[in-house]
Amino acid sequence: MIGGGQLARMTHQSAIALGECLRVLAGSADEPAAQVSANVVIGAHDDLEALRTAAEGAVALTFDHEGVPLAHLQALEAEGVQVRPPSAALHFAQDKMAMRRRLSELGLPVPDFVDLSGDVPAAREALIAFGDAHDWQVVLKAVSGGYDGRGVWITSGRDDALAAFDANAGGDTILMAEEKVAMARELSAMVARSPFGQGAAWPVVETVQRKGQCAVVLAPAPGLSEESAQRAQQMSLQLADELGVIGNMAMELFETVDGELIVNELAMRPHNSGHWTMDGAVTSQFEQHLRAVLDYPLGDTSARSEVVVMANILGAEDAPAMSMDERLHHLFARMPDAKVHLYGKSERPDRKIGHVNIVGLPGATVDDVRERAERAATWMSTAVWTDGWDPHTAS
Ligand code: ADP
């Protein structure tokens, strides 16, 4: 496993149940997965020698992020390492421009886009032509290296778009621009694909973003028509097949105000939009990723309940004086059904440090389950009950 973050940590949890121990390449011993694996290689994910050391004797090599340079992966593949997903597929998760091009070649719906990788004056002209043609509904993006909204500039008109371009063009960042989609909401269609060619799709979920990162996931996406859900699953399965993905793939989608589905992003690894599966689906995304990478038959992706909600625990602006341990005590006292997953990370503002899953009981409404999940996550972040609950009077 290349990368020692929470995705690696939770994949390791699933590996234990399958009788495996992940060897983790982590930047330091205190990273979330390095804390829990007995087999850690300390090194950088962009250091070929460190990658070779981690891959030595491994059945397969996989990732918890998209940051490994493609050339290194190609070198490892040439040396016989089973890189999963393979570099030829991962390329499309690393490079938004290549992804947009490939998806439009395959006839999948994507926002209009323009390549701004050329020399700066020509790229600026291209941006002006694109902006004029799209009423300056423009999102500027770094082609690679962005995550959780970093490297995405949602602009508010010509001056703002050109200012964002001028501030970011010409350096190491390669830019593209795309049409700002008038969206009703964001969805994620997660699938897994094995080398054998088996594919499996989880229910399509709604992802609620705050400050450019995922905050809440509603599973399944409330009110999504059966037809749209199936179309999203089909697009995701077919794309995983066309690209030769091995392991999980999350296809992030926009549902437009007209009910159309447009593909935004691809991630080829376990993904935040799949955390609900740990408690809410027959097979969690972490186990499925391992099954796919190890070419086992894939697991049942059915939801265990009609409503499951995941809320991220994000570091508060000011970390509360109450310890995480005490917050957990209080949460469990109030909500015995809340399933908490903590990543072993220190608290910093807006940092993903854990998540809460609530699996709705029969008849529960999505609004109720969501309110409870968000209340639990906010409590864990801030030590404040959003409804003013007093643990001493229990009211
Ligand atoms: P990241 O790689 O950081 O996840 P994304 O490309 O997913 O970046 O963009 C982050 C967020 O920015 C999206 O979740 C969405 O809310 C918004 N966004 C991105 N592209 C567009 C677009 N074309 N139109 C409208 N909003 C967008």
UniProtKB/TrEMBL annotation:
<dbReference type="GO" id="GO:0004638">
    <property type="term" value="F:phosphoribosylaminoimidazole carboxylase activity"/>
</dbReference>
<feature type="domain" description="ATP-grasp">
    <location>
        <begin position="100"/>
        <end position="294"/>
    </location>
</feature>
<dbReference type="InterPro" id="IPR003135">
    <property type="entry name" value="ATP-grasp_carboxylate-amine"/>
</dbReference>
<feature type="binding site">
    <location>
        <position position="186"/>
    </location>
    <ligand>
        <name>ATP</name>
    </ligand>
</feature>
<dbReference type="Pfam" id="PF02222">
    <property type="entry name" value="ATP-grasp"/>
</dbReference>
<keyword id="KW-0436">Ligase</keyword>
<dbReference type="GO" id="GO:0005829">
    <property type="term" value="C:cytosol"/>
</dbReference>
<dbReference type="InterPro" id="IPR016185">
    <property type="entry name" value="PreATP-grasp_dom_sf"/>
</dbReference>
<protein>
    <recommendedName>
        <fullName>N5-carboxyaminoimidazole ribonucleotide synthase</fullName>
        <ecNumber>6.3.4.18</ecNumber>
    </recommendedName>
</protein>
<feature type="binding site">
    <location>
        <position position="96"/>
    </location>
    <ligand>
        <name>ATP</name>
    </ligand>
</feature>
<comment type="similarity">
    <text>Belongs to the PurK/PurT family.</text>
</comment>
<dbReference type="GO" id="GO:0006189">
    <property type="term" value="P:'de novo' IMP biosynthetic process"/>
</dbReference>
<feature type="binding site">
    <location>
        <begin position="264"/>
        <end position="265"/>
    </location>
    <ligand>
        <name>ATP</name>
    </ligand>
</feature>
<dbReference type="InterPro" id="IPR040686">
    <property type="entry name" value="PurK_C"/>
</dbReference>
<keyword id="KW-0067">ATP-binding</keyword>
<dbReference type="Pfam" id="PF22660">
    <property type="entry name" value="RS_preATP-grasp-like"/>
</dbReference>
<keyword id="KW-0547">Nucleotide-binding</keyword>
<comment type="function">
    <text>Catalyzes the ATP-dependent conversion of 5-aminoimidazole ribonucleotide (AIR) and HCO(3)- to N5-carboxyaminoimidazole ribonucleotide (N5-CAIR).</text>
</comment>
<comment type="pathway">
    <text>Purine metabolism; IMP biosynthesis via de novo pathway; 5-amino-1-(5-phospho-D-ribosyl)imidazole-4-carboxylate from 5-amino-1-(5-phospho-D-ribosyl)imidazole (N5-CAIR route): step 1/2.</text>
</comment>
<dbReference type="InterPro" id="IPR013815">
    <property type="entry name" value="ATP_grasp_subdomain_1"/>
</dbReference>
<feature type="binding site">
    <location>
        <position position="141"/>
    </location>
    <ligand>
        <name>ATP</name>
    </ligand>
</feature>
<comment type="function">
    <text>Catalyzes the ATP-dependent conversion of 5-aminoimidazole ribonucleotide (AIR) and HCO(3)(-) to N5-carboxyaminoimidazole ribonucleotide (N5-CAIR).</text>
</comment>
<dbReference type="InterPro" id="IPR011761">
    <property type="entry name" value="ATP-grasp"/>
</dbReference>
<dbReference type="GO" id="GO:0034028">
    <property type="term" value="F:5-(carboxyamino)imidazole ribonucleotide synthase activity"/>
</dbReference>
<keyword id="KW-0658">Purine biosynthesis</keyword>
<dbReference type="GO" id="GO:0005524">
    <property type="term" value="F:ATP binding"/>
</dbReference>
<dbReference type="InterPro" id="IPR011054">
    <property type="entry name" value="Rudment_hybrid_motif"/>
</dbReference>
<comment type="subunit">
    <text>Homodimer.</text>
</comment>
<dbReference type="GO" id="GO:0046872">
    <property type="term" value="F:metal ion binding"/>
</dbReference>
<feature type="binding site">
    <location>
        <begin position="178"/>
        <end position="181"/>
    </location>
    <ligand>
        <name>ATP</name>
    </ligand>
</feature>
<dbReference type="InterPro" id="IPR005875">
    <property type="entry name" value="PurK"/>
</dbReference>
<dbReference type="InterPro" id="IPR054350">
    <property type="entry name" value="PurT/PurK_preATP-grasp"/>
</dbReference>
<dbReference type="Pfam" id="PF17769">
    <property type="entry name" value="PurK_C"/>
</dbReference>
